[in-house]
Amino acid sequence: MRQLLSSLSYFSIFFAPFVLPIAVWILSQDYEVQKHAKRAFLTHMFPVAAGILLLIMALSAGSFGAVMGYIILFAVIYFGTFVYNIIQGLHVLRAYA
């Protein structure tokens, strides 16, 4: 059960990116599950925070090239955290197997 909840916290990026990790983090009594749920929640929140910051920077930039650069940077950040969550979910499943 431990590895299932921990890995689902990471894999929830596919179906419930914020709801499942925060619920597991709050409701779980197991320290390891809470640790993974917290880490998954923070990695799900990172692209949102980066997107808000990049949106503010893009709106103040004014040029089309700068805006496109910020969009590409956001795509790289989002893709990186997406891949990280998948890798961590697989790692957690293999660690307890």
Automatic annotation (TrEMBL):
Name of protein: DUF4870 domain-containing protein
Topology term for the membrane: Multi-pass membrane protein
InterPro entries reported in the protein's UniProt record: MamF_MmsF
Keyword vocabulary terms for this entry: Membrane, Transmembrane, Transmembrane helix
TM ranges: 6-28, 40-61, 67-87
Organism: Paenibacillus lemnae
Highest taxon listed in the record's lineage: Bacteria
Main localization (coarse): membrane
Subcellular compartments: Membrane
Pfam families found in the cross-reference section: MamF_MmsF (PF09685)
